[in-house]
Fold:
Amino acid sequence: LLLPFNTPTVFNAALNFRLNWEGNVRSLEREAEEGLRNPAIMASSAEQALVKISADEVMTQRFRVTYGRAPDVPALLNAIATYERSLLTPGSRFDRWLAGETSAISAEELSGYQLFKSLGCISCHQGVNVGGNLFQRHGIFRPLGAPEPEFVRVPSLRNVAATAPYFHDGSAATLNEAVRQMGLAQLDRVLTDSQIGSIVAFLKTLTGAYQGRSVVPASAGPSADPVPR
Amino acid sequence: MRLALAAGGVLLLALLTWLLLSGINTNASAYAETQRALDDFALAEASIGRDVLQARAGLLGNYDVLAEAEEAMESAASRIRLHVEAENLDPKPVEALAAAVGQYEDLIEHFKTGNSLLQNSLSYVGQLSTDPVFGALGDQFAQSATALAAAVLRLARDSSPESAKSLQQFINRFEARAPIGGPEGEAAHALLAHARLLSDLLPEADQTLRALVAAPSRQPFEETRELLARAQAAFEVTAQRFRVLLYAVSLGLLVIALRLGHRLWTRTLRIRRLVDANIIGIFIWDFEGRILEANEAFLHMVGYDNKELVAGRIRWTDLTPPDWRDRDTRWIQDHKMTGSLQPFEKEYFRKDGSRIPVLIGVATFEQGGNQGVAFVVDLTHRKCAEEALRESEAKFRDYAETASDWFWEIGPDYRFTLLTENAFGSDPAGRIGTTCWDHALDLETEPEKWRVVRETLDARKPFRDFVYCSVGGNGLPMYVKASGNPVFDANGEFRGYRGTGSDVTERKRADEALRESAEALRRSEAYLAEAQRLSHTGTWAFNETTTLYWSEESYRIWGFDPLHGLPSREAMWQRVHPDDRDWVRQEARDARREKRDYAVEHRILLPDGTVRYLEAIAHFVSSADGELLEVVGTHVDVTERKRAQEERERLRQLEADLAHMNRLSMMGELAASLAHEITQPIASARNNARAALNFLDQRPSDLGQVREAIDCVVGDSDRAGDIIDRIRDHIRKAPPRKGPFDLNAAINEVIVLARSAITENGILVQTGLADGLSPVQGDRVQVQQVVLNLVLNAVEAMGLVEAGSRELLISTEQTKMGGVLVAVRDCGPGIDPEALERIFEAFYTTKSSGTGMGLSICRSIINAHGGRLWADANEPRGAVFQFTLPAWKPGRSS
Structure:
């Protein structure tokens, strides 16, 4: 069983106004329930998970302490969603620059940001999650990956440097390639390598940290680097 | 009582609490919450309106605010929905609201998607139209790029179809001149791409914007708000109502409390008045023997004054004589054990040392308390009255015991409560507690009498001399005469009856014997009259001068009116029929002279012309010396019997006439063939006579032959004579005879009579006559008539079927019963089964020429002979008529 789309990161998922590429799920609770149920993901159900949790005395006790009752499906889903809501990665260099720390990003990165704005990327990738707050048609001027779905929930660009591959079908393996394709498909612009490099430099400033550790690609293993200051 | 009071109190408290709670509009906080949700909704809607406009103008930094507002709106809508569901209100508006929210969100998403592209393209158009590369292509081209940008801006401001059309023209114009390749071609291509995108996006985005600003949720929102406001108003009204109710109930309780208080107060006043009225003595005491308070009446009884008693010098224990102290100790113990006490009698010492009998009732103020109140009644007067009553009772008892009548009393349930010793002879004790009808023997035989008695008792009326049959103390029936009066107590309440009873058995027996003999006499007279009436027999008795007796039936027979007294002898003679009078008189005289009874049958003629036939018998009673004492006679009215006889005779004659007519008609029918039957032997006789003459003329005459021929002549003429005899028999009108005869011979004769008629019709006759048939009894001619009728009917019936199969079978046989069965079978068309019985009815005929009497007469003839005639279907076809005749029994008939 294969999932139809490139799996989005769970980091900052709570900041997206809709979930998944199709944006067909509105809450983390529903998403958790769906994830348990989906034959391609957990192939189980919230009820079955509940049976297993209820068999665990320690877990049952924790539910009692937290929810004041024995574990049940709403409590279970709420627990998962609550945990996911904690998976935020603030404090990226760009965040710090926005907060007034002018030295947080380099001149090249800043010019990348200007280019990001002037090219019109910002028309869709905006807001607290740099995307994730509207639906957009893809392939406006030229095709972009698989034609379905016609509209996608605009992905967040936070931690984008750490979440390759790209696009709903995962057709772009590198960030440079993704930026180049976006320029062609959505803006009808052929971007130069230096423009792409500049934009990618800016995008790298969007990588944040979780519990004091920088977000790194899943393939890279846990990051030992302290948050760069 | 206390429990009920407590329960009542709790109920009341619950009622008040309920009213209070219902009076507080508990819904108010929930309503406020909903109002907040409504406000949030409106706020979100307003902020969305504002934000989309800003976004369209390119002034909105990001779409997060829109997402937040959407979420707020959704949450508000779901809060409203929860409230509506909780309140069980009409779900329609809130459902419409949810649908509108969905619609709204779709619009927002649509707008966001379009607007982000639109803003991007707008900035591109602005940027590209002024791109310096176009300048290199000449002013004209640069101008057309600017003009295109201007058209785009115009459409951005006013997305009307005209503007869109104009933009399209500019796009076309620019495209026509656009260079291809190179940086300038690239820029021109981009400008065109964005301008085209905008020409699509702008009108669409503005349309979405208009829909958004028009707020599709407005109407359902207003409706929901209206619904909630109405529900709240209804809640408020209900709460208001409960508050009013609470007020009313409180007011009612106040009124009740006031009334109860007032009643308590008046009761206290009344008790105070009772104490002060000094009707009975009242004092308040304690178990230590003290008198704490006493009213005037009590003080007066015991002859002390208030100070002496209340000061505590005199104690109620001291007032009690020593022989009553035990009684006091006892009641104190009883009271402690049971908590209550019946009033009792005792005595107190007066101050002067004399005793006063009192009735005292005591009660403690509270359960287990030390103090109490005593109510004291002076019994002095009552004691005197009781003495007097005892004396009067003794007198009554003496009287009752010496009287022969007895006294009784019954309670309201009519059961004996008292019977004096002599009641019902002896031993009346066993009847106490029973009713008098428990022992009555005539309850079932004389229900009416008892019903009247019960009515009298139930009406509480006195009764006198009611006699009924009871069982005496000795176990034998006893007639009892009872009288009684109802007893009512002082309140007018019915308490029963009391009265006297006495044994009237002897007198009753004498009465009964007398009545029984009178009754027996009356009954025997009634039987006689009934017997006379039934048998139409009258009796009478005369002496020399007067009529002594004339029975009821005699009056009826002779037509005399009993009211006119006994009829005279002469009046009786006058009613004897004039034709009979003389000879009857003569017969009576002769009988009298000869001193014998006489029996005559004569007629009487009544004044209305009625003639009656009487059989009269008279008997002369003479004294020892031969003097006539009286004549006793009976006369039986035989008129009806006579009439019936005449009627029967007439009927018999009629039948005989009919039978004769039938015979005549048959003979008429047979006349032609009979003539042949007669002429044939005559012709034969003539031939034989001629033959005889010829034999005589021979020389020498053959006398042997002559004799033979003449014998034949004799035989022939006998045959003709026989036939004529038979015909005469049938034609003659003769009274029926009854005698034994041979049926086979009779049938053969009939066949002879009918032979010509049979052969003329081509019918084959067969006979099956049984040998040694026993003779039958009856009229030979009539039986032959029956057979002839049946034969002729058969012949006629077979005339209708084809020749060759016409067969007639006449048979006889002995029946098991000893009689004879005759059957006449034909092969005619048969008889309709439904008509089998009707054919025997008079005037029924299937023949065109018949009288319809034949078979009817046959059946009456056979019936008169004691036999039976019936018809059946013959096998394989035709009809069979059969009849039976009983065998002759010598000596049975004359």
Residues 218-277 of chain B form the longest helix (60 residues).
